[in-house]
């Protein structure tokens, strides 16, 4: 395949990945990596490097919009970034020592898990009751603007959330994805932060987390400009278009279709990982 | 939970932070696009080979080597430089946050921000990649 054909195919594929990733909230990486490895025959280490670059682009782009709205809790973000950056660097370091087949299997499993999480009905368990000593010490409790006025919330189980963020960071560094599904578990279910705050804050943290592992990939030669070029531009444009459409459409049906596509890709990754083809 | 405790309810800081991120992404994308155009013009007919991971293939794995390529107007190096700018965009955001917490005299969060920066600097030092 020539450079030109490869770039064009990848540009279109990355655009679709960014579009679907932003419409469904899964992120572009989950499509980009199977596209590169299964369809274009690219080694998974290059795929991971290109994917993490697209994660930085999309998360920084949308964080810019969210921060201005005043929903993001920057203290929660900064505090949890300690956990995610350390573990992302750790995850990025160990990928090279792990058999690529196992990486593909792990990727498939995370993909299945993300698809399940996407389909699950979310329950908002946030409240403004008493929260723990840690939440008060780190000044994590906050407020955000709603249509009915300022809403206050309390943060719970800070230690549990912090630990879960370690897991999210390792997965992010290991597989080159934002691992938003795991971050949301940590914030929604464990720390019981309101949705709006947890999604925007998770997005806010993603850029720094991804940057920490991207630096390791960069030094190792996993970031190839020939792949990063179409992937970053395609995913960013796709995600931008997606966020514009998102405001006007109901994505429930789309989510079901997308969950099936993602599940199929996940099984493909696992199969190829098991049979030693990736 | 007094409101004035929350420095980030300050519209100015949110505006600067948002603008910083947006400008960072835009500038790096322009650089990536420019470098990519140069790269495509020079090498569009070459055959790609990404089947096997080769750490030395790009030759662009340190800031020094990227800088060298950019000076010689090499398309790949300029694209890689754009990627580096993109990587440093969220890092610049942390640096900015540290300063804004310093102004706010929230020393706990100055410390937390510096800790996050230190982690990234350690990983940037290139001692971790075997």
Which descriptors apply to this entry?
heterodimer, A: 278 residues, mainly alpha, two-stranded antiparallel ribbon, 4% strand, B: 130 residues, elongated, disordered N terminus
Description:
- The complex is a heterodimer of chains A (278) and B (130).
- With 278 residues, chain A is mainly alpha-helical.
- Chain A has one domain (3-274).
- Chain A contains 11 helices and 2 strands, in the order H-H-H-H-H-H-E-E-H-H-H-H-H.
- The longest helix of chain A is centred in the N-terminal third of the chain and has 26 residues, at 44-69.
- The radius of gyration of chain A is 18 Å and the shape is globular.
- The model of chain A has no long low-confidence stretch (mean pLDDT 90).
- Chain B is elongated.
- Chain B contains 4 helices and no strands.
- In chain B, helix 1 (11-43) runs antiparallel to helix 3, helix 2 (63-71) packs across helix 3 and helix 3 (75-104) packs antiparallel against helix 4 (107-124).
- Chain B has one domain (12-43, 60-124).
- At the A-B interface, helix 1, helix 3, helix 4, helix 9 and helix 10 of A face helix 1, helix 3 and helix 4 of B.
Count of helix runs of chain A: 11
Largest sheet of chain A: 2 strands, antiparallel
Count of folded domains of chain B? 1
Which structural category do the helix and sheet elements of chain A fall into?
mainly alpha
Q: What oligomeric arrangement do these chains adopt?
A: heterodimer
* Mean pLDDT value of chain A: 90
Poorly predicted spans of chain A: none
Number of structural domains of chain A? 1
- What is the N-to-C succession of helices and strands of chain B? HHHH
Helix vs. strand class of chain B: mainly alpha
**Main β-sheet of chain B: number of strands, strand sense, barrel status?**
none
Radius of gyration of chain B: 19 Å
* Radius of gyration over C-alpha positions of chain A, nearest whole angstrom: 18 Å
How helical, in percent, are the residues of chain B?
55-70%
